[in-house]
Amino acid sequence: MRITGLGHAGLRIDTAAGSVLVDPWTTPAYLGAWTPFPDNADLDWAALADVDVLFVSSVAPDHLDPELLRRCVRADVQVLLPDSPTSELRDRLAALGFSRFVETRSGQVTELGGLRVAVPALTRPTDGPAGTAMLWLSDGEATVLVQGAARPRDLQLVAGLGPVDVHLLQVAPAGWSPMAYDLPEQAKGTIAADLRAHAFLAARRYVSELGAPHVVPTGGPPAFLDEELAHLNRLGTDSGSTHVDPTEFRDWMAERGYDHVRLLLPGSVADPREPGMPVAHALPAGEAVYADKAAQLRESRRPRWTAPPERDLDLLGELRGWLEPLLARAPGVAGGIGVGVRLTGTDAARGDVDLLLDFPGRTVRAYDGGKVRYELRVDRAVLEQLVAVREPDWVHSLFLSGRFSARRIGRENELVFLFLGNLDPVRLDRLEAWLTHRHAGGEDVTVDGWTFQRLCPHQQADLTQVGSVSDGVLTCGVHGWEWRLSDGRCLTVRGMDIRSGAAGEVS
Ligand code: FES
């Protein structure tokens, strides 16, 4: 078996029984804000993408690159399809001309010639608009798990398939908090450092659980080439960015006695059958490319993003017509947000457009002053673009781009972003159903004198497995959310309270 890095989360895996292409990405994404780093534009994509099987783990634009797939991947390739909650991934691949789909059942092994594959799929709305899938693959000589961006509560499903030789996973969160928030720089730095530390601990937990002899961090960070976003690259400053270079994770693991982390850069090749899995890098600078990142970004020949044209849309009328029917069909989501969200399209020349997404009233109206708990500020032309094309997913366009700013009073309410990431009836119905189910929380369990619901309200992790109790506070080990056990109040995210209390007092 031979594994070739393609940059970011992209891989080519050559086996005795055929070749597999995973998440190839090179086209700038997220409103042009993200570009692969190290740059992979000069790879021989025609040759590298000439494979037998294609696997795309999610519809996020740094995993599904329509332009690259159309240009370089044969339409008659076999396409491994996760057991997704919607047909969105299949539909989008079919629109690119692919038709030889291999439907998988989550966690069950499928035989493809001499290749055994399994595609465990995560299907909650918090796992992305069409879910996120992992790829387990074995050719009889070596076994690989591409966990990628998937964050399951544990890896039991995969561990049951047998020992894994190479474990590839994303080790840092891609997000917008705290970077986008109007906070003092020092506070942003502290919050981001906490988030990065949590992410590393969670990654180490996965690594320990699977026990693979070789570990490869994948999926980022991207390069932010625009001047206004350059601070997200964390070049010599702690700007509140949660992005980390894979070298940081490798060194952090080495300090803790894990010396089996290997880096795959664009064009790097490794064979897991070789002792220690040495990596041959194609980039002349090798892993020193991260030490030289500032110069690499400065000298990048990639074209810079240009803002969308002004459209002079009636934003209030358009958003009313679009969002009010959606608010009406998702009372649980609207009620869970429970406050107004001010949305401002900023424009120094044409003037700002100031709106209120009134979740309690299920309406959109002009903002008429007064205190609000949430404020989002977006360039007016960008907002017009999102509205004009009826972009259903502002998370995988606007928010992850970093091209906005936010202010809030109190804790973050994840539902604000989940709503704005699911702006069509199919997606929103799924979110509403999930929210209703989630509030059940599983049965009550008792630990250290406290009784609480078994399931984490974030992603249903089993709190008896991944939770820890200290000083009356319960912490979920997957993403670090905390609850005050005396009353169930979530200390991390507003509106995510749990059922809890002293043992014997929970009803
Ligand atoms: S699953 Fe994310 S905090 Fe528990």
Précis, in short:
The protein is an alpha+beta fold and 507 residues long. The longest helix is centred in the middle third of the chain and has 26 residues, at 185-210.
- Give the strand order of the largest sheet, numbering strands 1, 2, ... along the chain: 6-5-4-3-2-1-15-16
> What is the domain total for the residues?
3
Number of strands: 28
Oligomeric state of the chains? Answer: single chain
Average pLDDT confidence is 93
Radius of gyration: 23 Å
Morphology: globular
CATH superfamily of the largest domain: Ribonuclease Z/Hydroxyacylglutathione hydrolase-like
CATH-assigned fold name of the largest domain: Metallo-beta-lactamase, Chain A
Number of helices: 14
Give start-end ranges of low-pLDDT stretches: none
CATH architecture of the largest domain: 4-Layer Sandwich
Helix content: 25-40%
State the end-to-end CA separation: 56 Å
Query: Which band does the percent of strand residues land in?
Result: 15-25%
> Which class of the largest domain in CATH terms?
Alpha Beta
Name the bound molecules. FE2/S2 (inorganic) cluster
Q: What class, by secondary structure content?
A: alpha+beta
Strand count, sense and barrel status of the largest sheet are:
8 strands, mixed
